[in-house]
Amino acid sequence: MKKKLALPLALVFLAVAVLSGCSGEDKNTITFWTPLTGEDGAYMNQLVENYNATNPEFKVKHIVTADMYTKLSTVLNTGKGVPDLAIIHADRVPGYVEQGLLEEMTTILAAQPEIKEENYLPQAWATGTVDGTQYTVPLDIHSNVMYYNKDLLAKYGAESFLDDNVVTIDEMLSLKGKLETGHYVVNDALIGWVILAQIQNLGGDIQENGKPAVNTPVMKQAFEEIKKVADAGLMTPFGEDGFLQFQSGNVLFSTDGTWSSTAHASVEGLNFGVTNVYSATPEKYTNRASSHLFAMLTNKDRSDEKEAGIGNFLEFIRQNSLEWAKAGQIVASKEVIESPEYKEYMQSFFTSNEEQIKSLYIYTYEHYPYIQEAIDQNAADLVRGNVDMDETLAKMQKQVEDKIAQGSSGAQ
Amino acid sequence: MAMKRKLMPAFFVGPHLILFIVFVLIPTVYGIYASFTQWNLNSDPVWTGLDNYRTILFDSESTFYRQFWNGLKNTLLFVALSVPLLIIIPLMVAVALEHKKVKMKGTIQAIIYVPGLISISAAALIWSLIFNKQLGVSSNVFGSDAVWSTTQPYAWMIIIILTIWGGVGGNMIIYRASINGVSKDLYEAGDIDGAGPIRKFFSITLPSIRFPLIYTFVMTTAGAFNVFGQPLMLTDGGPRESTTVLMMYIRQLAFGHGDSIAGMASAMAVLLGVVILVISALQYYVMNRNAN
Amino acid sequence: MSKNMTISKYISYLFLISICAAWAIPVIFGLTTSFRSQTEVINSGFRLLPLEWIMDNYRAILDNTSTAPIVRWLGNSLYIAILHTFFVVVVISLTGYGYSRMKFRGRDTMFFVLLGISFFPPVVNLIPSYKIIDALGWVNTSWAMIVPGLAGMGNIFLVRQFMLGIPHELDESARVDGAGDFRIYFSIILPLMKPVLIVCALFSFVGSWNDFLWPVIVYTDVDKMPITAGLLLLQDIYGNYRMIGQLMGSAMLAIIPTLLLFFFAQKYFIQSINLNSGIKG
Prior knowledge:
The complex is a heterotrimer of chains A (412), B (292) and C (281). With 292 residues, chain B is mostly helical. Chain B has 13 helices and 2 strands. In chain B, a hairpin with a 7-residue loop joins strand 1 (37-38) and strand 2 (46-47). Chain B is globular, with a radius of gyration of 23 Å. Chain C has 281 residues and is mostly helical. Chain C has helices at residues 2-33, 38-43, 56-63, 70-101, 107-118, 126-135, 143-146, 154-164, 169-176, 181-210, 213-218, 227-234, 244-270. Chains in contact: A-B, A-C, B-C. At the A-B interface, helix 1, helix 3, helix 17, helix 18 and helix 19 of A face helix 1, helix 3 and helix 12 of B.
């Protein structure tokens, strides 16, 4: 009797017991998680391989994760399997530091004298500085940029727009009525980032004394300026894929990302260059940027020796991350971007002088992600005049405030 | 013997019950617990009682109130538009395939089943290319001027088209297998009575497959309530958040870019669960009563 | 009557052919897009067949074997799917029998309570589920993929519904003859269940094949991943489809195994199938 009952239970528990196959974490391996899927992952693999080929005491194991932040939450909950090193995005830093999830880089910086502010692009470095403590070391800056179709610029006599490195909205508007049907001046790729750039161009910000500032005159002006372009019929139609439209040679300017250059290059006959995102004012130009940052998540099991190993890896990256330029990104290490080989990459335009470097703007406000989310959600409707501007900006402001009140950092 | 009788059910339903408790019940209870807290997924949840529910259901000023009701409205619209088609089309296919003289049944069946196997991102990309004004058929073939993903009612139409295209295969198989099993004698008797194909469908086929039919109705509805991939990929919830379904808001709260607002997300999910529960119970009750 | 038959045949054909065309064209378009260059995709508008067939997309997918051991992923998927499907069939046939044929107190209440619980959308469940898998020591093992899905209620509901349609005469008479539950289950009910079990097996095979969020969470080892999770790694972090042909190519590669299984399984539910076999009496 009991045997019969025991059988199914035994089966279930057998299944439970059979594979408790633990993958014992190698003590001499640095597990390194990144969200770098696609080709970026392959370039990072190459970098890691190059490092491991130098026979370091601690080899690096690169693990690409499609949904890294969710996965980080799961391992943080069990406290097991937390990676030794990870790449996180700039906008995660304030939240993670607030929650005490990031380890300071202090020891590594002490051991690696060359890993210091002066050797990196300043804003990429500063993104990881919270209250004077350094929590991250930057790999790159990836930015919203503006590609232009050389042939179309020539055709419409618009090459002069590029003279001063700032294409203004007025310049773009001057093409009104001059384009063939089916041709457009600019697309709406990454339109939310373009808005965020205008806020800087117009001298505004997204916060005021730590409080989110979405429903502001500057924000409204930013939207209105870009709306002018759409109203004039110069922007690719709402809902059409502006990115593909640029690739098919119907659009003069495309406001997508540094990382798109490889895709654009794969299109035969697309003769393109890169410049700054257009601006509402001739005085200033801004490219809204983010950064991939090396960070150590809090983990008691990370030994001091391993931390030293991580330091060696980061120093290797600082010197040898030219490979990363292939992904289209702006490498953060000055040693790399000052090398002659780097100059051959299109994105070296953005580090060609001090003013250019300054144009790469990374928002570091702690509640920036909520603001970007609200802008992304509503930008298209606002720019196309689908919704009332004041009402929508008020709704966005409220949404950000409500989320901050609910998000953990606001709660305490 | 009496003892054996008592223990027998444990053998049949016990293993699943254990699995259910471990892998469904515990996580679900935890999710319900989380709905009474403020939680960022990384640290421990902080108990806040009924606050989340109060905000979502009654605080008409709150963003979460607005999102919940807008999301629920859009989800209900999606359910109402998609479920009838996800039942009727596969049923018609199954009936047509049942016709004695129709050939290549296997091939036809496979063609209709395949779209369900294509990953949602690739499927959405296929359809956005098709409906892309510049490149696709909507302008080339139909001469339509609107950009479908950003104009209502087309935005809903492409979402529904993608859903139907990818979603009818499963129900078709269930109906196909069910109808196949209906005794041929019944149809022959119908022929003798001079019943036409339509009468045979309503008086023989439908009653014979009533139990699987209940299943497909309940499960298709529950599935439709959980939709988010199609609107996310095709319209990104637009225009004007008119296709943002509740699951999209919930996922954005829990897994968005900023600090996770998982407690609020859980509360919305629990409320959605209650809605699904009530509707499927009603469906089951009504259909089962009619079936008996 | 035969005239009637002919008319209905044409109506059936007309309906089936138009629906097949509507269903197949996007698939063909997707498939042929995987043989197009980016240049062609963006320039040539909607064309069913490529102007120029290229293999570059597949070459790019298969070349990238350091990050993407596709063949391995296929193998992993197959292993997981087969084991999962096998266990599913065992569990649902037992459980389905239990909830439809056995008599015990609170049977239907229990069934509906379980079904109701399973309707709650899993959102944050990821965290507790992961904790459980971790406690069982299944992180990075295929058990994390094979076992949790066995707890689902959908297939059991289908089996139960199917069993409701089968008259009790057969098993009642066997019971009168003195057969116990095991014998009734094995020799009477199981054969009757075969069609619905095949349908369920197909569904769960496809389900375990296509599940991609969970594997991303439970596997850190790229080599152990099933193909759908693995393919995610080949796609872009920015969510932009920079390379349309490659995305299509990987989606097409991923459906091959399920498609093969479908052709194999459909033989069974077209020919010998009697989902409502009991009605024959």
